[in-house]
Design brief:
D-amino Acid Aminotransferase, Chain A, domain 1; five-stranded antiparallel beta sheet; 7 helices
Length: about 260
């Protein structure tokens, strides 16, 4: 598939056109950002790991009937995805209270919630992705009531599946962010899961030690992020458990082989 012009560049990914108007190429960058882009750096190999982890999770979600934009992974950093109109809402799913909600509401960090809590944030970096209510979404026509109801049902199923998947490899799913998009097909429009699901968009803690295996390592200066992301990939069976070659080195080796050819 031929890669065309750049359509969009976000904080962690770039979207390119292809020769198929219904498909685009999603490129995973090594950029790491936090606090609405106030803290940022480049971490070599992060994009490779997020590409692999997101592919694994979205592929598994497809198998349980959760429609999403993933078509297939092209290479270490790129995926072919369906072109969708992104709904301008970030859906935050919380199983355990940590991060901004603890500061906002004075809740003790690590409080286990009786039921999953879904929060909504408007996707607008200039405004700092403000927290909004479902009434705002409907009042300002960012999504319809029917769309939100469908999304909430998908979210609860996704959450149940991911809790079980991560629990099986000794990881607690604390919270995560989801995005959805409108897909037009055969004159009809449906809402499907989009963006990525990775340690960039999830809080993941080791089940025994509560060690952070996600982007909080960067946010809170807890140490190198790559070993944590690599650990998640290994536990999910994406990287061989006994391999001594990191995702970064795999990328470098692949690059060297291409140059020799």
């Amino acid at each position: 598939m031929k890669k065309g012009k750049k359509l969009y560049e976000g904080k962690a990914k770039i979207i390119y056109a292809t020769n198929d108007k219904n498909l685009v190429i999603q490129y995973f960058k090594d950029d790491a950002t936090a606090f609405n882009n106030q803290k940022k750096t480049t971490i070599e190999g992060k994009g490779v790991l997020n590409n692999r982890i997101s592919e694994h999770i979205l592929s598994n979600l497809s198998q349980i009937g959760i429609k999403n934009h993933l078509v297939k992974r092209l290479n270490m950093r790129e995926q072919i995805i369906k072109l969708v109109e992104i709904i301008p809402i970030e859906f935050i799913v919380r199983n355990v209270a940590t991060g901004s909600i603890t500061k906002r509401l004075g809740i003790e960090d690590g409080t286990v919630l009786k039921e999953p809590l879904i929060e909504y944030c408007l996707k607008d970096d200039k405004l700092g992705d403000p927290l909004i209510a479902e009434e705002h979404i409907i009042a300002f026509d960012w999504a319809s009531k029917n769309e939100i109801d469908k999304v909430k049902k998908m979210i609860l199923r996704i959450n149940d599946f991911m809790i079980g998947m991560f629990r099986g490899v000794g990881i607690k799913l604390i919270d995560f962010k989801l995005e959805f998009g409108r897909l037009k097909s055969n004159g009809k429009q449906e809402v499907i899961l989009a963006d990525e699901i990775s340690p960039d968009t999830c809080r993941l803690w080791d089940s025994i030690t509560d060690k952070k295996l996600d982007k909080d390592r960067f946010r809170k200066d807890l140490g190198d992020l790559i070993p944590a992301y690599t650990e998640v990939a290994k536990r999910l069976g994406i990287l061989h458990e006994q391999s001594n070659v990191s995702a970064v080195n795999v990328t470098k080796l692949s690059s060297v082989k291409r140059k020799k050819k």
